[in-house]
Amino acid sequence: MCSFSFEVFPPRKDESIKNLGAILDDLGQLSPNFISVTFGAGGSINSQNTLEVASLIQEKYQIPSIVHLPCIHSSKEKISSILQQCKERKLDKILALRGDLCGDLPKSKDFSYASDLIAFIKEQEGFEIYAACYPEKHNEAKNFIEDIHYLKDKVNTGTDKLITQLFYNNEDFYTFKQNCALTGIKVPIYAGIMPITNKRQILKISQLCGAKIPSKFSKILEKYENNTLALEDAGIAYAIDQIVDLITSGVDGIHLYTMNKSKAAIRIYEAVKYLLKEELQA
Ligand code: FAD
């Protein structure tokens, strides 16, 4: 069965959670397998907002929710307190992350890598643990071999499922999956897909996470950069093409990075819903 899910981010500290209501109404109607909620590693986004949005998703929409949890600027005490709050809110799925380094914040004395956090969460029973992985390797890793070696450690420490960084070339994902299999990584791997809705945003994100832009995709960005609606059409078509190929090839799950925009998510779902249902019946 192919899982279908979404990522959303919570409102910033000074924004109201109500602003997310319309997008969650839209996403909720698509009955995804889960919705994950990001969490700012540097504290730019209030952790309370992440937990509130995750609770809202479960309580109002009856959809399982995953709480992202970065650790690199956090302590055991802080993480324990968040996990306790998760338990009280019946949030039992955690995406355990190192988090991106914020230069001006002190590094954690307790956690250096996601695997340290996974080991810590594992000590407390009752959580399903997700972790991040990188088909084009993590941008700080020296090479693929080193990166996959540490990924194996992360899985051995107690990861139940993996979600990939966004990528635009399915071949990178297939090679990565093969390497995971060769290394003995057997947990499900959900493919992270981000449809283009805005040229500047995609370039910035790809720069940050190191995702390559294939020439077919660059052509779309060049040609339609000043035509928002055409760019959206082409970006959605590109994402659908990627997803059809991934589902046909037996991917474990598709995780859509929505950037809190439901229109593209709805169009993508509409285009592949029978492929997903076929998978459900298979
Ligand atoms: P790790 O698994 O710890 O790996 C980080 C680097 O260290 C890699 O290069 C790895 O090869 C290396 N490494 C791992 N273990 C060791 C070791 N023992 N010794 C030496 N090197 C090691 N960030 C946020 O702040 N908030 C979010 O909500 C968020 N959501 C995300 C969701 C997904 C699906 C993904 C893919 C990423 C997300 N990120 C988020 C970004 C993520 O925090 C960054 O990519 C971060 O730089 C790495 O996090 P990680 O958990 O993959 O780190």
Give the rounded overall mean pLDDT.
Answer: 93
Percent strand: 5-15%
What is the rounded Rg? 18 Å
Bound compounds, each kind once, are:
flavin-adenine dinucleotide
> What's the story with the biggest beta sheet?
8 strands, parallel, barrel
Shape: globular
Please report the number of helical segments. Answer: 10
Q: Give the helices and strands as they follow along the chain.
A: EHEHEHEHEHEHEHHHEH
Number of strands: 8
User: What is the share of helical residues?
Assistant: 40-55%
Helix/strand-derived category reads alpha/beta
Strand order of the largest sheet: 1-2-3-4-5-6-7-8
Low-confidence stretches: none
Q: Termini separation (Å)?
A: 7 Å
Descriptive account of the structure:
This protein has 282 residues and is an alpha/beta fold. It is built from 10 helices and 8 strands. Strands 1-2-3-4-5-6-7-8 form an 8-stranded parallel beta barrel, surrounded by 4 helices. Helix 1 runs parallel beside helix 10, helix 4 packs parallel to helix 5 and helix 8 runs antiparallel to helix 9. The termini are close together. It binds flavin-adenine dinucleotide.
Any key phrases for this structure?
282 residues, alpha/beta, eight-stranded parallel beta barrel, 49% helix, binds flavin-adenine dinucleotide
Summed up:
The protein is of the alpha/beta class and 282 residues long.
